[in-house]
Amino acid sequence: MTYSALCRAAAVVAAGSLLLPACTSRPATASLGAAAPNQFAADTVLRRIATAQDERRTPALLPYLNRPEEAYRRAAAEALASVQDKAATPALLALLQQDAEPSVRREAAYALGQTADSTAEAVLVQRIAAEPDGTVRRYVLEALGRCTSRSGLASLTRLPPALAPDTAALSGQAWGLYRAGLRGLTSEAAVSRLVQLLGRGNPTSARLAAANALARTRGLNLAPYAAALGATAQQDAHYAVRSGAAAALSKAATDPTVPPLLASLARRDPDYRVRVSALRALNATMYAPVKEAVWSALTDANAQVALSAAEFFLAHATNEPGGMFLEKANRLENWRARATLLAAALRQQSPEQAAIRRAVQERYTAAADPYEKGYLLKALGEDPAAFDFVQQATFAPNQPLVIGTYGMEALVALGRQPNFPAGRYPEFALALRRGVLSGDVAVMGTAAEAIRDPKLKLQKLLPNPDFLLQARDRLTLPRDLEAWQSLQQTIDFLQNRTTPTATPVAAATSHPIDWGLVSTIPAGQRVVVHTGKGDIVLRLLVEQAPGSVASFVALTRQGFYNGKNFHRVVPNFVAQGGCPRGDGWGSSDYNLRSEFADLRYGEGAVGLASAGKDTESCQWFITHAPTPHLDGRYTIFAQVVQGMDVVSRLDIGDRIDRVELMDSRR
Which InterPro entries has this protein been placed in (predicted)? Predict the structure, then answer.
């Protein structure tokens, strides 16, 4: 997936804050092409820099680092953050140490972090104390977190005493520890410092980073810090900090105060995103004391909360009466929560199993919405006795593509069930082979992934990769890249290759940036996404992501997005749409290159989905809340400026009626 970009003004963050709000826009004065021009319209040098970035030409970018114009040095440094070539590290380090302009040093630090070159560690450590500008120092600390070794972690954990009152340094330290934690680098001292940074007196940015670091760093035991985490989860003024602290409490589950606290948050926090995080932090050991609170959450007014409650029962309920789940599911209005609870009913393996299975199959037959039918197939994926029904539904002719996609996922889930009959494994293997040869990219990719799963041990049943080679060679690149990747990885697996086959990423020359179109897009151009739930207004970030915005505008003008669906909605994460197939496996006939501008994923960021760096296409997503683990990994090309309440209500299958460029005089 890719991420949405924030406006250039928001990129130049205040020294004490990295928590970026939705962009504010200038008053609209004219239609597309007539309002304030973007920075590329008249500046050919900036276009050349952006083209060199798009073409990944480091040697062409390096001379711009020595230009007398601050804007060009800054732009070239930021461009190298997308290229991510370690050959540029020495030049970026020199820029960080020697350039007179803070904005240039800032982008040099950002690019060094994006490149993640460990050879930059020593200079970054030295720069913490030597850097005179607070904002640049914050960037240096965050970059250090992306580059540091385990031995260098101490420099992040213990700031020089002179920086103790520096709010920018506190934010940078917290983000640096967060970035290091994502890489698996932490220590008891680092954890203790992060808990300190949760304190109310610290900047919101530092508290957000600390909460996310504690939530996302693996392998932590946070039971000793349960009281501090609980206080933050209940009392912090910012919902995203409370949400992160609630998520972190999952690592403090052995403390007896945690289950009732999370249950209370799931019931009472005023923000649905915190309620979702609290539900997701619950685990099987907490089941009995929190069950009633989760039952209550099934009828929460927000569908994301209700779904999260149903997912809790699916993941953690054991030895419950399946009929009880069936009864409660039948009372739910939200179809995703209902189907998920039906899956929980089937997972219980209760005496009512056959009756529950028949009820789900009857719902499938009666359902008109293909997405609901798909979720019902997912539910049947919990019951091996449903294999024949699911297989028939998966390969039924003349049905919506999404049903085949969900059906193959359900077939794979059935084969992974511990009670799947051993005698039916050859039939299961043949169903996967049929999926690979089906010609449907989603079915092919999902089936191929299952074949290479070592736990399924299908190598003896399907030892010859010829059918996979045949299917792969029928694909069209770059459109079918994701299916190609899955098939090739399975071919490598069956052929016992130790070195993976490289992914054939399309070159920039196959779809260069359309500078003619870019020059007509005003800075701050707005777009309205008309959905069945209401309108969402986006501000396009053409100056940060010219290639991505030009592609989006061209597709919008063609009416490409009209009538598409939101095919993926993950609670408290993203709503994703724009897939021509409607299941996430569709693409345009070209790829774009990733544009990693100096931006952060805050609430309402709009990004491009991808199957890896430089494989972006037509799918895009909107974030429900800050998602900093996506920063610098997915292109941000727009920002929601109106309609986040609509985004919060979106669900799978909701229709994009049309997308239109707004006349800025409106």
Answer: ARM-like, ARM-type_fold, Cyclophilin-like_dom_sf, Cyclophilin-type_PPIase_dom, Cyclophilin_A-like, PBS_lyase_HEAT
Scanning the structure block, which residue is given the tokens 């994923």? 601
Q: For residue 535, what is the enclosing H or E element?
A: strand 534-540
Q: How many residues are recorded in the chain?
A: 666
Q: Provide CB contacts within 8 A for 653, sequence distance 6+.
A: 369, 370, 371, 372, 565, 566, 567
Question: Would you state the structure tokens that stand for residue 168, as one six-digit string?
Answer: 């920018």
> Residues 641, 539: contact at Cβ < 8 Å?
yes
DSSP label at residue 68: S
Q: Which helix (H) or strand (E) holds 262?
A: helix 258-268
| Long-range contact pairs involving 116-122 (C-beta distance under 8 Å, separation at least 24) | 116/84, 116/146, 116/147, 117/86, 117/89, 117/147, 118/147, 118/148, 118/149, 119/86, 119/89, 120/89, 120/92, 120/93, 120/147, 121/147, 121/148, 121/149, 121/152
Q: Which residues pair with 622 in a beta bridge?
A: 575, 606
Query: Do 511 and 472 meet the contact criterion of CB atoms below 8 Å apart?
Result: no
What pairs with residue 661 in β-bridges? 527
Q: What is the pLDDT of residues 513-531, one digit of tens each?
A: 999 999 999 999 999 999 9
- How many angstroms separate the CA atoms of 291 and 348, rounded? 16
DSSP string, 36-67: SPPTTTT-HHHHHHHHHHHTT-HHHHGGGGG-
First to last CA, the chain: 32
Q: Is the pLDDT of residue 1 over 90?
A: no
Closest CA to 15 of 179, 146, 171: 171
- In one-letter notation, the amino acid at residue 252 is A
Q: pTM of the entire structure?
A: 0.94
3-state secondary structure of 443: helix
Helices 102-115 and 89-98: crossing angle, nearest 10°? 150
